[in-house]
Design a protein that fits this description.
Rossmann fold; three-stranded antiparallel β-sheet; 3 helices; binds magnesium ion; single chain; binds xanthosine-5'-monophosphate
Amino acid sequence: MTSQDHHPDVQSILLTEQQIADRVAELGREIAEAYQDEPPLLVGVLKGAVMIVADLARRIDLPIDMDWMAVSSYGSGTKSSGVVRIIKDLNADITGRRVLIVEDIIDSGLTLSWLIANLRSRGPKSVEICTLLRKPDAVKVDIDVRFCGFDIPNEFVVGYGLDHAEQYRNLPYIGVLKPSAYTD
Ligand code: XMP
Ligand code: MG
């Protein structure tokens, strides 16, 4: 099996490894330009953003640093509720810093709205958003996404960090999960 063959639970490949790599490189260049006067702290949201942060960081030609947060959004299965709990907080003090939150995907935007408000309350100089993927519902919430990789259809996707029940994160591409692979 080569890396681009479908996993048996994946109905189609939405973004290939090469498409992701090309777009991440472009985002890295855009971010380097936008932050050339003051490099950002990249805040990756665990676990889904691990792949995008790792690849993006190597495409930003600036002395950036990285930190991580893990949050859990209460909700069942494939829907988030907007009620968020911090599982792992930042190590860094972000007072006066320029913060760039890096997300894997924005769907309802509820998780991210909460996170932005939480980080803003800590007195950073700025908080901006970079997401690899954005689903159509994300336009319904008032979040200013400065850097977006791809706008995708309203389907449940996995791979490149994105999971269902902790599976499929290590697929090198982003694929649409077969409905038979999830139950709600
Ligand atoms: P909200 O709705 O709060 O959701 O913007 C953000 C979180 O929900 C998960 N999510 C997905 N995970 N494929 C996934 O693997 C998807 O298509 C998907 N849509 C939402 C994800 O954890 C994200 O951070
Ligand atoms: Mg996420």
